[in-house]
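Record type: monomer structure entry
Structure origin: computed from sequence
Chain ID: A
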Amino acid sequence: MAYTIEMLAQAGIHDIVICIQHMSGNIEASFSNGRRWGVNIQYSLQRDSLGDAGAVKWARGLLDDSFIVLQGDSFIELDIPELIESHQQSNSLLTKVTNKKDNQESQPTGCYIFEQAIFDSIPNRQTYDIETQLIPKLIANQVSIHEFNHKNYWNPVTSFETLQNLQSDFIDVVANNANEKDRDQLKTISFNGNRFGPKVWAGNNNIIHPSVRIFPPVIIGDNCQVGKDVELGPYTVVGSNCIIDDEASIRQSTVTEKTYIGKLVNVEDKIITSNLIIDVPTAKSTYITDPFLISGATPPMINNGFRLILDKIIAVILLILLSPLLLLAGLMAICGTGRIFKSVERIGVIPSDIVSGNVLSPSRLNLIHFNTRRKNGKTSILTHWVEHSGLYRISELFGVLSGRLSLIGVKPLSTEEADRLIEDWQFQRYSFSAGFTGLWYTEQNHEEREDAALIYDVYYVAMRSFREDMRILAKTLPRWTKNLLFS
């Protein structure tokens, strides 16, 4: 889906609607509003699966012109300007994109261009398929359908084997193993990685033993530990936050993020995710119960100890700079309610768990806030502004000093908010520590729905980096100042 969005953005298409039903929370958390790609993403959520035509009809309110339909679970390198031009010249209600190479039979790719009038032919709130129901209906009604033959790269990703083939094709292009024709077909690829050797790429903060034997091409993510006498490659991809223990061997396989591969384990032509091994040719899976062979991993991140120290230094500086406001908030609290501080309970992961690499679980965080409420639960004239401006939270910086909070992280949840977490994607926010500020503070608008902060948190956990943290920190002060002046 990310490559599809990049392809659309490169073609100048910036308004995108994603129809979601299965894994809706994960998808929305991953792609957010599309700002990362310079596009505007809206979501059309289906309660039940309606098929591709039914999903298009369900999203009708978000579509006000002719539009392109692309499959989210396949990869196609599509010349969109050429497709649009071909469709416009045909004056057809519908253009279907097919794939035919040499003497092969033509195959539907699941890509189409529709005109608005197409909605008249799709029933409301029914499961309806474009290829097997809508198109036969149009043909029966003698509606002209234009066919655009796509000759570049297309992979329907219908099995683990086609997924692995797609990944190998990507690696070939990046490693210049591919022929000129394949390189021309895969233009959408964007690849971020540091060249570690000939046709070997590795991310940041990796610990790789000098005795490791690498047979390129190989790609390694961030924050990985690779032990002595390990063999990697060829065509091996290791996700971020993985541990490959001593003398393990991994060939033509994919190890997904946060996975531990034990000592002397030999893996070939497999996809490994946590404690599940999938055999690529047969698609058969094996669940591993021995954690010393294969299991989930939370490796300690090299820079977290330094980050914890840096957080405390910045917190001290902020407390000194903001001491006049601290004094003001304290005076207003004691004059308006009779006491300065109150202890509040929040739920989140503490920073020391991130540094130690322990299995992460949320803890109860006792944070200090300026007291803004009298015994009757109401604010006073003096404390109303302290509460509505968010000034009462400035004392959470003491939580950063004591190690209960990170300076930047996910939102510390109230007990009630934590109890409302029910979906797997929501619990991904516990992959990082609670913070004084974060995307949940700098990006969320008051008009957004209640779970918007959770979506921002999951997006932050997936995409966070030092640069992103600095951007959040830079946006926190203007946002906070605005709240002080206009609350």
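Annotation 1: The chain has three domains: 2-155, 160-296, 304-486.
Annotation 2: The CA atoms of residues 99 and 105 lie 8 Å apart.
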